[in-house]
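Thread: threonylcarbamoyladenylate complex, take 2
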Amino acid sequence: METKMNSVDNLVDNEKTYKQAVDILREGGLVAFPTETVYGLGAIATDERAVQRIFEAKGRPADNPLIVHIGKKSDVKDYVEKIPEVAEQLIEAFWPGPLTLVMEKKPGIIADTVTAGMDTVAIRMPDHPVALQLLKKLELPLAAPSANRSGKPSPTEAEHVYHDLFGRIPLILDGGATGIGVESTVLDVTVTPPVILRPGGIVKEQLEALIGPVHLAAKPEEKTETPRAPGMKYTHYAPEAPLFVIEPDASILEHAVDSIHQQGKRVAIIGPDELQTIKADWYFTTGAIHSHEAMAANLYKAIRQCDTTEADIILAIETDLTGIGAAVMNRLDKASDGKRYSE
Ligand code: TXA
Ligand code: MG
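Output below.
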């Protein structure tokens, strides 16, 4: 299959490209598009066969459900049995935006494959002009996971989608780099208090300021039962070389680099501007040390850049858990499979 990548920035006439995208989707095909978090791989959420193509293109396990993207707040009632009051408040405050709400689904509308046979559905309204324009022209909901091959970091640029899904999908809408860089927060509002199943773009502090205490889901390995967000149990965001998390300390870092070199190995480092060391074989910066936002925006690209090197080992410098730092560390925890660097 030929994969086209069409720019949809403000300087070009986009009408033809949107029409092409809508035609492909209506015929049951897949289109990748930018959102404010990461690029998504869309199929019409009510079309069972189209949704199955998402799983095939990504190599995604069938028991990991997808997020349904809608273009208007009022669409949510078409897919949800009963909207909890707390959800109404959250929708009013944070949509469009990087907050996904898990609610009880209305049976028989959204394809079963989207929800992996569960009786809940995850819904969000993305805050990106291209995603919103596409949804508006389509007038149907889009099931869309991140547009990467399963196990790889989510794409924050159209190029990343092209790299992962070339030959597997017909069209990528290129809207430039996404802003936030980590995925939406997934919040289960079927329970009280609501539970964050995946930390993301809307942070715990923002949620709690509006609706009071929310819980953070335990890591799957700390639980005996099946994880509530099925995606939590799979390998994620993993680069080719083993990745270790390390403290933000210049001397610990230099020590680590020396000791890795003594073993005859080469090292790539992901970290802030301030800790850049010429001792590293490769250093991919994620921006200013105190900016969690910059780290979120640049992390996935940096992980992908490590895959273009011959590094034997990757060190990723950790940050604290405030604000979007929680989402960043959640992803690093997965990318490293919980490994921390120690001598
Ligand atoms: O920012 C985002 O959310 C991006 C953009 C494209 O919108 N999408 C995204 O989708 O990250 P995906 O498929 O990569 O992650 C969806 C997450 C998974 O962890 C999945 O297990 C969880 O949402 N999920 C989906 N439906 C669920 C449900 N009914 N109950 C619990 N978790 C659900
Ligand atoms: Mg994903």
